[in-house]
Amino acid sequence: MRVTILGSGTPRPDIERFSQAILIEAGEDKLLFDTGRGTSIRLSQMDFNIGKVDKIFFTHLHSDHIVGFPDVLMTGWVYQRNKELKIFGPPGTKHFVKKIYEAFSEDIVIRTSKPEELKIEGMRLNVNEIESGLVYKNKDVSVNVFEVDHGGGVEHSLGYKISYKGRTVIISGDTNYSENLVNNAKGADLLIHEIADAPEDLIKHNAKVRGLMDYHTTPSEMAKIINIAEPKLTVLTHILALGGTTHLSILNSVKSKLNKDYKVMTAYDLMAIDVKENIRTYSIDYTR
Fold first, then answer.
1. Looking at residue 142, what is its pLDDT?
2. pLDDT at position 152 over 80
C-alpha cells in the first residue's frame, strides 16, 4: 500500500503546500481522500493519470478540503474516466456534489457532443453520505469511517481507517483531541494527523486564535494520542503554525512530550509512504 500526500497545507495559499488531499493506492484501488487546492496538479506531478481516480472520500466540507473537487471531477472525465465515480462524505455531500454538477451542466453537454464525444458514464456519480462503520470493501481493501470533533459549527467531521493485507492507515481529518480517533488508531502502521500551535500569550489575548486552537489538535494532545495509540509512524499534516511557531517547533514540541522514541515526521507535498513491514518515505515528484 502506497500513500501519497498530495496536499499538506492549510487554507492559506502556498505554492509549496497545497491544501489537503491524500492518495492511497492499495491493490487495484486508487482512493482519494479530500480534494484540496491543486489536487490535479499534484497528481500530474507524480505522473498519475487523474482518470484512474474513481473513489473520493471527504473528511468534511470546509473549502480547503473540497475546493479542488470540480477540477478532479471534470479533468478526470476529460482524461478518460469512463466509469461511475463513487463519492463518500458527511451529510451535506449530496447537496455539494449536486450543485457542482449543475454548475458544469453546459460543459458536460458540450463535451458529450462532437468532436470530443466523451462517454457520459464517466460522469455518473454515486454519492454516499456516511457517518460511521464500514463504507467500502473490495477484496483485501476496506475503508471504515468514524466521527471526530472539529468544533466550530462543523456538525460532521470524519476520520478514516484504511486497511489492506494486515496494514492500517488512519487519516484524522480536521479534529481536536478525539477518543474515537485514538481507539481506531491503536497499533496503526501509519497515522496521518492534523495539528496546530500558537504561543500561549497569543491564545490568551486573541479570540480568533483561541477559537482556531479549540478546533484543532495541540502538540500536547498530539503527543497524548501517539502515547496511547502507538502507531508505527505518525505524519503531521495540515500544520497550522500561528504566531511565529514553525513546523519544526511544532514537531519538536510533540516529540518532547512522548513517552518513547516514537517515529514522527512532518508531511510535505508529494511525500510518498510505502506502508509495509519496514515503512519507507520518499519524494515522488517526477517533474524535478
1. 99
2. no
Q: Is the pLDDT of residue 245 over 80?
A: yes
Instruction: Please give the Cα distance from 107 to 71 (Å, whole number).
Output: 13
Concatenate the DSSP letters of all residues of 186-245 into one string: TT-SEEEEEEEE--HHHHHH-HHHHHHHHHS--HHHHHHHHHHH--SEEEEEEEEE-TT-
pLDDT band at 288 (very low <50, low <70, confident <90, very high): low
What element of type H or E holds 40? helix 39-45
Measure CA 143 to chain center: 13
Yes or no: say if 12 and 26 are a contact pair by the CB < 8 Å rule: no
224 Cβ neighbours under 8 A, 6+ residues apart:
177, 257
Enumerate the domain spans of the chain.
2-283
> What does the block give as the cell for 145?
469511517
What's the Cα-to-Cα distance from 252 to each of 17, 135, 170, rounded to whole Å?
Answer: 20, 36, 22
How far is Cα 159 from Cα 148, in angstroms, rounded to an integer?
6
pTM of full prediction above 0.90: yes
Could you tell me which residue, 288 or 156, shows the higher pLDDT?
156
How large is the C-alpha radius of gyration of the chain?
19
And the C-alpha cell for 30? 486508487
CATH topology of domain 2-283: Metallo-beta-lactamase; Chain A (3.60.15)
Average pLDDT, the chain: 97
Confidence band, pLDDT 50/70/90 cuts, at residue 169: very high
